[in-house]
Amino acid sequence: MNFDQVEKIAAAILYEGYMLYPYRPTAIKNRQRWNFGTLYPRVYAQAQRPEEPFRLVAECLAVADAQATLDVRLRFLQLAVERTSEHADLRLDNLLASPLSLTVAMDEELEFSLHISAQALGDGSCKLRLEVQNTSRLPGGAEAKRDEALPFSLASAHLLLGLKQGGFVSLLDPEEKYCASAKACSNIGVFPVLAGEDRSIMLCSPIILYDYPQIAPESAGDFFDGTEMDEMLNLRVLTLTATEKQEMRNGDPRARRILERTEALTEDEMLKVHGVIRELRALRGTAS
Hints:
Mean pLDDT: 86
Low-confidence stretches: none
Number of strands: 8
Radius of gyration: 21 Å
Strand content: 25-35%
Largest sheet: 8 strands, antiparallel
């Protein structure tokens, strides 16, 4: 499956919350970096009070031919390093007959399990269930601190599902005959939405999105902050002191690119981030 058409939105999710305004590495909220959708090693997560997440579960519906195949892409950050695990051409009829369970080791320090199953439903749809668990061994075990667990964690973990010879069903706005099945889907840590240009791709995101999410064309680049407010962040970056800007330049390369891009904005580009009219519609009737 060609996931290129959803690459921009998937990359935005991958770095959602990666670093926060004012983008200084000395700021407490950047020293204690966090991300949406972090799966900690199970031994660490279950020792915390309250318990931290160590798994995600994605359930969604598909309507497909008997010969349909499923492509799965798991993507996450290991600290600041992008990691991807691909599993292609999984026959749907095989998944219906027998679930697939895999243990995936990345390097010597990171390990996770992937379980995929399928169930035929009476309304003609097929229920897909995917579960990812962080099974990494942690040197400090249950007594480990958060800083020790983070290098073994899957941050911003999300799934891209691609279906050949079939299509996914919207869980937000399903056809009437699939409503009961869609309502019965249970998701933990992710929100499956349709993505791309048709129903062949499902994005299981750690943040809530609508079907077919897109990056606004007026957005000049990532801000990572999680606020989705380019206007405010552009203005706030421009008000930083010379000392704060220098700290941005000397810190994370992505922070430096934010500063360079923002300082280079033209007047027309700045005006675009203040708002845009997507569509004009005629009003019916007479105002009273």
